[in-house]
Amino acid sequence: MFFRKVSFFVLVALFTASGILHAAERTRSSNNKNILSFKVGEQFYVDSDFTDYFKIDAGDLNTIAWEIAYERKISRNIGIECTLGYSSSSADSENILPPANDYADTSIRNFYLSPSAKYYLPLGKSFVSYAGVGPDFYYSDVDFEYHKDRTKSSVQDKGDKYYCLGVHGLAGVEYYFSKPRRRRYLASPRNNRRGQVSLLLEYKFAWVEAQDVVDKDLQVGGHFLLLGMRYRY
Fold it and tell me: pTM for the full model?
C-alpha cells in the first residue's frame, strides 16, 4: 500500500510538471502534434500468490495483447499518451491439494486504460528512443473453476470481476520510414513533422494486482513486448 501511495504521488507530480512545461512551450511554438498508434505483442505473466498456491505455471498464461493509443506531443521531447488495451488468457493446473486428484481451470480477460508521460531522445534522422511512466486502470474478469475430483458434481466456480490500480514503466525505439506530406517539412524525427509514419518496438512492465482472487493476489499485468505503427497528424 505504501508503494502504491508513493508511486501515485510521483506520477501526479510528473503529470503536473508536464502541464507546466506544456504551458511554457505553447508560448514559443504552436507546432504540437497528434499521434495515433496501434500495437500488438506478447504479454508475459509473472508469478504471484495465486499462481503459486494453485500450482499454475505463469508462463502458461502468456498471451497476445492488443493496444490502441492516442498521444499529444506537448513539447519537442515530451508527450502524453493514453492507451486502451485488451488481453485474454487461460491455464490449467492439477494435483493442487491432497489427495492430489484435483485440478483447476483459470481464464483471465483484461481491459485496461494506461496513461503515460513520455520523454523522447532522438538518435539521428530516422530513429528516436523514448521512455515513460504512468498509472494503470484494469478491469479484470477472472473465471476460476476448481474441481475436487474428476466428477462434474465437484465443480466450484469462484470467478469474479475486479477493478485494479497499478503503475507501469516503458521504453522503446521508433524508426521513421516515411517522409512528411509537404516538402518544406524535414523527415527528421527531432522536428516532429506531420504526415510521418513510424514503426516501434516497445517494452513495458505493469505492476497490477487483482486482490482476493480466491483469497489470493493475482498479478494481471507483467511484462509486455510490443510491435506497432504510429501516424502523426
Answer: 0.80
